[in-house]
Amino acid sequence: MKDSKQFEALLKSLDGQKYGAYKRLKGTYRFERFRLAVDNIQSDPYAPPSKMRIIMDRDTAGIPDDLLDGKTKVIAASDFLTRAFADQIQAEKKASKGRASIQIDRCGQEILERTSVMIGEKELEVRFEVGMPAAGRKILGKAAAHIFMDILPKVAEKALLYRNLDQEALKEQTTLMVDQTYVQEELARRNLVAFVANDSILPRKSGVSDRPMEGAVPFASPERFEMEIALPSGRKVTGMGIPEGITLIVGGGYHGKSTLLQALERGVYHHIPGDGREMVITRPDASKIRAEDGRNIEKVNISTFINNLPAKKDTGAFSTENASGSTSQAANVMEALEYGSSLLLIDEDTSATNFMIRDARMQKLIAPDKEPITPFSSKVKPLYDDKGVSTILIVGGSGDYFEAADQVLMMDEYRLKDVTDAAKEIAETEGYRRENPSDDQFGEVSSRIPLKAGFSKAGKDGRLKPKGRTSILYGREPIDMSGLEQLVDASQTNCIAVMLDYFRNEVLDDRRTLSEAADVIYAHIEKNGLDSISPYTGHPGNLALPRKQEFCAAINRYRGLKVKSSRS
User: In degrees rounded to 5, what are phi and psi of residue 524?
Assistant: First the structure.
């Protein structure tokens, strides 16, 4: 193995040569505190940056074992080191006036399982990218040597050596994630679907910033739902526990209803200290349901909600390339149930009105046999009674859900109040009482088997290429994921693209249901690590694990999907 001095000499010897000569750098080099692996060199100055890794012995890094004993702590520490490395890159860029073109995966407010920093039993590995400097298409070897010999070692020393880290902040983040994981597990033990700690800051800074809003009203639980949880750290947290069943959140416009729901949507993830939502914890399989006009639907059983369509179109295996608001929302519900969600989160602002409610006057005008839609208001109670699936629902314009609700909470100027008794009293008042407010049964949930024939593209047409957070190109076919509001990071989309490639090549067998096939992939990742599914040699550094819900949802939005129905 060559050392850093030989690497420096090679860089300087390339000065002024054609850009392709940079490829001579591929290999591994020993520096004082780490090894540098140059895995891939960009083909020209305008191509994606070169991929590299720093490999450091854990003994050299010096991070105490008690901060890394268990997968939860390793994920938290890896996230912390990724952020520290990114911060040091920015500091060195500023000091060098932008001449250091180094980058690492960007983290948001959530702590996700990533491949940017991997911590093993004996080593830790940092995956990053470097834009190799050039003048036109000629190598700037001396500038490159400055990056690798001066800047990179400083970044590694400040961001990876425990003695140089903010040790209290690292301990706080690992401890917090252990506590968050415990609360998430405690939800099932206490028959809860979510927990929101008192003094949480739910509003965000702006529409383009996910950081907490300054001066926001802290959350406070209604007395009836307040509880205390003792945490593994020895601390205690007090807040609102939302029971299983049907929960309505009501109130006037701009009073904070949707803000609370958005916090619950993100509560499926762990958050960094200082986010304000650190102890907003939701069932990990919760699915946000909304209308998605124009989405593709492939043989989904939506007959629970929609029947008697004109021309006797089959809704037991419903397909369309251009779904309406109501059919798309019905499909979103049934798909979420198909892959095992135990909690649905719904906001009337992003829902199809005719899917959600059908008032008494409209029922008198349009005969039941002429209306193909059974609204969600008639199905929400049997959904819980028959299937054990809870719903948290934001409503501001209709009281049709009062009869079915187990609890009704009112958001009033960002302060939550328990108004269950008042809502029930209104529902029983003459003139407000609904006839037949609920169906007796929910209906059947079908499983579907994805077929190899739907993933038959090969060569360039078979490539899966992520495009930001909300889209993947499969050949020239876009998979639009803009309706997946719980997909929070572009690196999750990168990972979905890699998982889809593994899915079509290694998992599809024309026998497994979609849910079963997804479980195979997640079991493989759990056993072998997230980067084990990547086709990239040595450097899948920009992957963040999505939930099963978003992975399956991405497959459902692929317009070339072919399935056979397996009703159960």
Answer: -65, -45
Query: Under DSSP, is residue 262 helix (H, G, I), strand (E, B) or coil?
Result: helix
Residue 221 amino acid letter: S
Residue pair 549/285 in contact by the 8 Å Cβ criterion: yes
Q: Structure pTM?
A: 0.95
C-alpha angle 338-342-345 in degrees, rounded to nearest 5: 100
A 10 A CB-CB count for 87 gives: 13
- Helix, coil or strand: residue 511: coil
Query: Alpha helices of 451-513 — where are they, by DSSP H?
Result: 490-502
Token pair recorded at residue 133: 């400097």
Query: What's the CA gap between 64 and 82, in Å, rounded?
Result: 17
Nearest to 297 by CA among 263, 255, 265, 330: 330
Alpha helix segments (H runs only) across 429-472: none
* pLDDT tens-digit map of 12-59: 999 999 999 999 999 999 999 999 999 999 999 999 999 999 999 999
Residue 97 burial by CB count (10 A; 0-12/13-18/19+): exposed, middle or buried? exposed
Residue 350 vs residues 174, 264, 381, 483: alpha-carbon distances, Å: 36, 16, 21, 10
* pLDDT digit string, tens, across residues 501-521: 999 999 999 999 999 999 999
Query: What's the number of CA atoms in the CB half-sphere (13 Å) around residue 362?
Result: 10
Residue with tokens 């989160």: 345
By DSSP bridging, strand 343-347 and strand 287-289 are: parallel
Q: What is the DSSP letter of 334?
A: H
Specify the residue for token string 């997640």: 522
Angle between helices 490-502 and 548-556 (to 10 degrees): 70
The token duo for 156 is 């590694």
Residue pair 83/107 in contact (Cβ under 8 Å)? The answer is yes
Of 463, 477, 469, nearest to 561 by C-alpha is: 477
564 - beta bridge partners?
449
